Every structure is written in structure tokens, then in C-alpha cells.
Fold this sequence. Notes:
single chain
Amino acid sequence: MEILPPRPLPLAESVLSARRRKARRLAAAFVALGCACGAGALWFSHDAFRERAVWSQGDEGRLLKVGGQVKETSELGIKLFYDYRLDVVYADISGAQRKARVEFETIWKPVDTKAPASIRYLSADPEHPTLSWAIEAGGYRWGMPALIAGLALLFLFAAISTPRMQARTEDRLRAAAEDGEEVLFPVLSLHSYKGNWTVRYQPAPGTKATASIREPPLLVERLGRKHVLALRSPRGGAPALVPEDLSVFAFDAATLEQIRQRLRG
């Protein structure tokens, strides 16, 4: 005996509409985060490009003193980020002493601050010289702009994919509610993380599948084993898992009570 009423099943359009609005809000948030990361990548890239421009076009000074500090940032016990905030004193080509602040970052690998350093500057902007350490860092100097640019692309991808995933999920649910066959799949594992449920189940002997659902899935005990209830449309596509609270369906109170009785039976 089937647990759900005969198809087609009525859907709760207000619930589906709320999910579409939530997906659009998430997409807008991802766009904002992506734009912020893009601006950050441009900012860090600008500094790295400026250093190269100073090094290729500037005059070489005589480095007299280097001080300041290096801030290290670790993740999971691994040192990843090195933030250099250095105070330098150098002599320009006229012999005049100048003080300046030199700041740059590297990722994964620190610069060898024990190695001899040289300095170059633009005569039009002697307050912002470049140390050879930043140039010799090579690709590690570009790690921060690349990392932030990667995050920007990731957020923009999420902004595009979130509404599409919601649309695909809704289309699958509508097809299943219209003519879906009711099936019970043995559950292999069930996990919840930040409000999303991941179910690993056995669609056929010797096979495994994984599906995600916003709410706890409806589980049914059969032959001493938990099964997840799903609807599978004959038109193809992945089965639609049925949520435990049946919130996506517009069932009246009498229908809900009949379903509960079937589950208890």
C-alpha cells in the first residue's frame, strides 16, 4: 500500500515561491561578495604591478637600514600568509637620506630576509620605493591577488548556480508530484550540516546514490531497516526525496492524518 495519495499531488506554491525568493537573495549576496573580492583582488594586484613598474623604471638607491615586522598567519597549524610591514632608510642618487614604509604580502613561502636587499624608487614618488625582496618572491607575491580573484570567481559561480539548482529541484519535484512512482530506498547514511541533509541510499542492489534535501527526509521502517521515501517520475531524472514534514505538498488535515496512519501501520 502506498503511503502518499494518488498522483497528481498538490504542491504548496507558497512554499516553492519562498524557496525561489531565498535562492534569489542568496544569489544577490554571492554577487555582492564576488564584487567585494574582485575589488580586493584589483587592490592587491595594483600594489604588485606598481612594484614591478618601480623596479623596471626607477632609480637604484642605497639601502641603509631595514626594520619593521613580519606578521604570520596560520591555518590548521600551517603558515600560509606573510604580511611584511617594513621601515626602510635609503640614500637616493643625490646621496640624500630618505625614510619610507614598504608593505607587501606573500603566500605559502616567506622571503629570505637574511639575503642582501636592494631598493629602487621613482624620483617623482620617493616615498614609495620597492625592495628586491618583493620582486624576488615571484609567484608567491601574486598569491594574495590570485587567491582573492579565485574567491571572486567562486562567489560569482555560486550566484549563477544557486537559482539554477533551485529551478532544477523544483522541476524535478513538479514532475514527481504529477506522475511519480512511490519508491522506498534503503538508507546507507544520513547527515545534517547547517540545515541541509545529505542522504546516501541504495536505488538498486549493488548501487549507491547521494541526494541533498533542505528538510529531514521522510524515513520508513521496513524489514528492520530504514528506507527513504521518494517519488520517481517515469520521464526520467533523479528521484525527488519526500520531506518528513510534507511541507512542499498542499495536503489538507484529513489527508495528512491518513498519511500518518499509513506510516504507523
